[in-house]
Design a protein that fits this description.
Length: 127
């Protein structure tokens, strides 16, 4: 019994949580400015991602087709549909690039361009 308990404790100590960070101040401000219920859902999903990793699966997260390495948090609430575009970096880092309220079926090209620009800037500044 003691061996099992010790193994579980060691496994917990050894497990690393993912770290959430923002590409820049604007990326943080965008998330904070989302409508209350959408913002709350995003924060809830980010907390889950710290423990469970960046791929929670649909309907919560999804890879964005055609972008290479970008993903989106999908937050649906009475106020609308919110998205947080993020990337995953080495050392268990989840980087939030851009957040917005989605008003159309397809993610607007402008929002993808903002996220891709911030992704490139973040990579250039940090790697």
């Amino acid at each position: 019994m003691d061996k099992v308990k010790t193994s579980l404790i060691e496994a917990e100590k050894g497990s690393q949580l993912f770290e959430i960070e923002f590409a820049n101040q604007k990326a943080l401000d965008e998330l904070v400015m989302l409508p209350t219920a959408i913002r709350a859902k995003c924060f809830y999903l980010l907390e889950r991602m710290k423990v469970d990793g960046p791929n929670l699966g649909e309907p919560f997260t999804k890879k964005i087709a055609g972008t290479g390495s970008l993903f989106e948090i999908r937050a649906k609430a009475l106020e609308g549909i919110g998205r947080c575009i993020y990337c995953v970096c080495v050392q268990k880092r989840i980087v939030i690039l851009h957040s917005f309220v989605k008003k159309t079926q397809k993610t607007p090209a402008k929002n993808l361009e903002i996220a891709l620009k911030r992704y490139k800037e973040f990579i250039n500044d940090n790697y």
